Amino acid sequence: MQIVLVKKVKTLGNPGEVKNVARGYATNFLIPQGFATPATPGLIKEAKIRSRKFDKAAVVDDSAMVAFIKELEGVELAIKAKANEKGNLFASIHAADIVEELAKKISKSIDEEYIMLKEPIKKVGEYEVEVKAGDKKGILKLKIEPQV
User: Fold this and answer.
1) How far apart are CA 60 and CA 75, in angstroms?
2) Sign of dihedral through CA atoms 145, 130, 107, 91?
3) pTM
4) Which end of the chain is more exposed for a tag (fewer CB within 10 A), N or C?
């Protein structure tokens, strides 16, 4: 089934792209969740225009992120979370938590997609989290502390 993406889907593509997917995937997930619409000739033409706009916006976002990554060098972030006596967290720390804490610390926010966490953080300790935009990478120092 041919669909037009309305929102970015990490495993599929960016807004405005026309994709062929399994009918069940489209009708049971993508369309009801608002990620896509069924492709019609009019929508396909509109999708090409939307795709070009998204590509231009992505270039601007990545160039702004390169400057932001330079600002991150040397920034240490501390997040307090509830943990047991062994240092295991009751609730994992995700990219969204890091973005929220970063916004409080330096008064700038970024999208979660730039934070490269292999898996959620589940223990108290110090971590180096990679921030990546395009081919530029930066390291954010993160300290998870037990909440008293």
Assistant:
1) 24
2) negative
3) 0.58
4) C
Report whether 131 contacts 139 (CB < 8 A): yes
**CA pair distance 127, 141, nearest whole angstrom:** 6
Beta-sheet pairing, 76-81 with 136-146: parallel
Structure tokens of 68?
A: 């932001």
- What total number of domains does the chain contain? 2
Within this chain, do residues 22 and 78 fall inside the same structural domain, yes or no? no
Domain check: are 110 and 129 in the same one? yes
Would you write out the chain's pLDDT as a tens digit for each of its 148 residues?
Answer: 999 888 888 888 877 788 999 999 999 999 998 888 888 887 777 776 666 655 544 544 566 777 777 777 778 889 999 999 999 999 999 988 888 888 888 777 777 777 888 899 999 999 998 888 777 788 889 999 998 6
Q: Is the same domain home to 94 and 116?
A: yes
**CA separation for the pair 15, 53 (Å, rounded):** 9
In this structure, the answer to whether residues 100 and 35 fall within a common structural domain is: no
Query: Does residue 20 fall inside a structural domain?
Result: yes
Q: Is 83 left (phi over 0), alpha (psi -120 to 50) or beta?
A: beta
